[in-house]
Design goal:
2 copies of one chain form a homodimer.
Chain A lengths: L1 H10 L4 H9 L3 E2 H7 L5 H13 L3 E6 L6 E6 L1 H4 L2 H20 L2 H5 L2 E2 L2
Antiparallel strand pairs in A: 1-3, 2-3
The structure holds a DNA duplex.
Chain lengths: 115, 115
DNA sequence: CCGTATCCTCATCGATACTG
DNA sequence: CAGTATCGATGAGGATACGG
């Protein structure tokens, strides 16, 4: 249980996993990544990337000699261990979507009395 | 990606998954469940259970004729489809814990320069 | 026992403007 | 391009008291 909480603390929030997913198909520059993760602001992307980096999930590469500076982000090796988690969540999300189709919310809210 | 977001919206937050886990070993009464999920207040437990119920993950059984009223919560069948998700998160949480041991945060924060 | 009502605090997130 | 600074809104979550 503690492990589940740990995972949720690290991956919870609105953006962590979308960012990871955005990096799955290879390294990306900051702006590129911001376009990939629809709706995220630069502030959020920066903050979230910093946290992911500290936790060893993402690596930040700086090409300092260029002007303007070029920064690239990539999934660290430890970041790739998230694949099963992402697949599980994605699979369940789809499954749940199908479930919702066939089970109207009204029926779910009705009280179940027991003798 | 949309599916991952859906899953996170439903299972995100501090308590949803801990509650589900608390119900894995069989149905529980409200108070019983509150003891199981360490630290949760009655307000939160009530609110979260309501949401889980609306989404078809948990079923609420009311034994009305007793005094005081007895209410039991159980994982709905659709709730059991979360097992793979929980296992994935739990497995990753443990793996990450081991990873942290061997990779001090200091090393992770250092800039990586590229030619 | 099983909650709800009320009040409150704080983290999260967004918008906008600005810098190296 | 790759961010940071500042301000502000919102909502999750907690404390406490009370009701059926």
């Amino acid at each position: 249980m503690r492990a589940v909480r740990d995972a949720l603390d690290l991956l919870g929030g609105k953006w962590k996993l979308p960012i990871i997913v955005g990096l799955v198909h290879g390294p990306k520059r900051f702006k590129q990544l911001q376009r990939e993760v629809a709706g995220i602001t630069a502030k959020m992307l920066s903050k979230e990337l910093k946290e992911l980096e500290v936790n060893g999930l993402v690596t930040r590469y700086v090409q300092a000699d260029a002007a303007p500076v070029a920064v690239t982000y990539a999934l660290a090796e430890h970041g790739t261990t998230l694949y099963p988690v992402i697949e599980a969540l994605q699979g369940w999300g789809q499954q749940h979507r199908r479930f919702i189709m066939h089970a109207p919310a009204v029926a779910l809210a009705e009280p179940v009395l027991v003798a």
